[in-house]
Design brief:
Blueprint lengths: L5 H15 L14 H5 L12 E12 L3 E8 L2 E8 H4 L1 H8 L6 E10 L5 E12 L15 H6 L1 H7 L1 H23 L3 E2 L5 E2 L11 E4 L4 E5 L4 H9 L4 E9 L11 E10 L3 H20 L3 E4 L2 E4 L6 E3 H7 L12 H11 L9 H12 L8 E4 L11 E2 L2 E5 L1 E6 L2 E8 L4 H16 L10 H10 L3 E7 H8 L23
Parallel strand pairs: 3-5, 6-10, 14-15
Antiparallel strand pairs: 1-2, 1-4, 2-3, 4-5, 7-9, 8-9, 10-11, 11-20, 12-13, 15-18, 16-17, 18-19, 19-20
Length: about 500
Amino acid sequence: MSERPEQEQIRIDKLTGLREKGYPYPNDVDITATSSDILATEVKDAESATRYTLAGRMVARRDMGKAAFIHILDGAGKIQAYVRKNDVGDESYEAFKDLDIGDIVEISGFAFDTRTGERTVHAESIRLLTKCLIPLPEKWHGLTDVEARYRHRYVDLIANPDVREVFKKRAQIIGELRSFLNERGYIEVETPVLKYSVGGATARPFHTHYNSLGSDMTLRIALELPLKKLIVGGLEKVYEIGRVFRNEGFSKKHNPEFTMVEFYEAYSDFEKLMNLTEELITRIVKKVNGELKIQYGDKEIDFTAPWPRVKMTDSLYEIGGASRDHDVHTLEGLHAIAKECKVELAEPDDWGRCLDDIWGEIVEPKLINPTFITHHPYSISPLARKHLADPKMTDRFELIVGGMEMANAFSELNDPEDQRERFEEQARRKEAGDEEASDVDEDFLRALEYGLPPTGGQGIGIDRLVMLLTNSPTIRDVLLFPQLKQIEDEDS
C-alpha cells in the first residue's frame, strides 16, 4: 500500500491513541429507534419524553463551544442530534470533540424540536462505535466521479442517500414480482449456473473449468432449458429469479452480468402471457410509483392498459415509417427498406435477420409507451413455436418500453424433431464461427421426447425494469456492484 494521505494518517493516529486507552470496537449496541421512528414520534417535555437509542454515521457537525449539532445517517435516513457537555459529561464530550465526519456513533436521548422546527435528538450519552479512517468525499456528485461512484459503491451510498432509495425500490420491485407469481400458483425454483452446453438464448458465453469434474463448462446465458424440463416433470408453473452471464459489450442498456426472471406455464401460450404481463407490470408500477404515468429522462411513459400489439412486419410501416412500396415479406423488399433507411444488414441473405436489423434501427427507438411486438421471424427464434399460418414467423412477442426490450416470450416449441433440427442449425452456425450460436443439448431433447405440454414461457429483464421505475439513465445505476475494468492501484 502506498503512503497514506495526511488526513487519513491523522485519523489512523487517533485510532492508535484510542487503542492505547483500550478502545474495543464495541459490539454491544441495543438500538431502540431509527431516524424515521424519531422523526415520526410525538414530542413531549424532557421529563416525560421517551428515551431512544439510535446509531449511525456522523455526516455533518456544527460546533458551538460546549455544545454541537450533528447529523446522523442511519439505514432509515438522516436526523439531527444536539450534543451538550453538561448532558453527556466532561469525559464523553472530550472524546466527542475528537470524532471525525464519517465516524459511526451511538446516541441515547429524547426527541425535541429546535426553534426552527427541526426534529432533533437531545443526546444524553454518545460514544464511538467505529472509527472512519478515510475522509468522506466533500463533492461526490458530478460526471467526473461516475466511475468512482460505481467502483466504490459503499461510499456512494454514504455520500448520496438518494442512491439508497434506488436499491430499496429495486428490492420492492422484486418483492412485488414474487408476490404476483406466488399468488398465481407459480413455484420458485433454482437451477444450475454452470452448464455443459450453451442454450436458451443467442449469446456468447463465459467459459470456465470445473476442477473436481475435470470438465470445461460455461456460465448460463439464460434460465430457460432447465425450467422447461421441470414443466415436463409436472411442475406446471415455475419461475426463477437469477443472474445470467453473456460475454458481450457494455452499453447504457447492457451489462454482461444481469438479473432476469423467467417463468413458464403449462397449457398457456404467448397470447395469454401478453395479458399476464400487462397485469404484472401495471401492478408493479402502481405499487412502486403510486400511478401508471412515470417520468423517464425527458419522456413520460404511460403504463395504462391495454397496450398496443403490433406484428413485427407491420411495425416497419406503422411505426418505422418504411415505404409501403416495399414488401417487408420479401428479401428484396427488406433490402430496399434497408437502403432507404441506411441500415447495414449483418446477414443480407437471411430474411428474418434482415427484418430484425431494420426493426432495431427504425422501430425500437421510437417505442416509448409499452408496446408488444409480435410474430418474430423463425430464424432468430430457435426455441419458439412456428406460427401455423406462416412458418417463417413464430408465436412470440417482445415488450418494448422506453426504447428498450423489457420482456421476451413465446409459445414454446415442444416438437422434439423440430427442436433437434433447430439445434443442429445453431451448431452449424457455431461451427462456422458464430460465437453466439447454441449447442445441441441432448438432455433437453430427451426431456422433450417424454413430452412437453403446450407451454408459454417468458423472460423479463429486472435491471431494465428498475431503470425505468427509478428514472435511471444507465443500467450501471441500478447495479450495486457493476463490473468495471480492474485498475492497478486500488488506492488511487
